[in-house]
Amino acid sequence: AWTDSSVVVRKGDRLVFWATGELRSSSRSEPSGPDGIGPSVHRVGKGGLVGRIGDGKTFDIGARTHLIWKGARRSYRLVSPPPLE
Description:
The chain has a two-stranded antiparallel sheet with strand order 1-2. A two-stranded antiparallel ribbon has the order 3-4. The chain contains no helices and 4 strands. The two termini are about 25 Å apart. By secondary structure, the protein is mainly beta.
C-alpha cells in the first residue's frame, strides 16, 4: 500500500530525500533501515524505501546518504546524492 505524502510535484522539480528509521518485521530478528535488507550499490534491498509520483514508475529512495572521505584529514561526513528530477 502507498501512503500519499500530499506533496505536489511538477515536471522539472528537483527533489532531495533523506530518510531515517527502522522497520521491524515479524519474520526477521534484525531491523532494517530505509536501504532495506541486502541493498546493492545501485538498488535498495527488500523492504527498502521506494517512491512513486502519481501513477508513474517506482524509484528507489533508501536512506539517500553516504559517507565521503575529505582529503588527507581522513574525516568522513554524510552527504546527500544529487537531487532527483
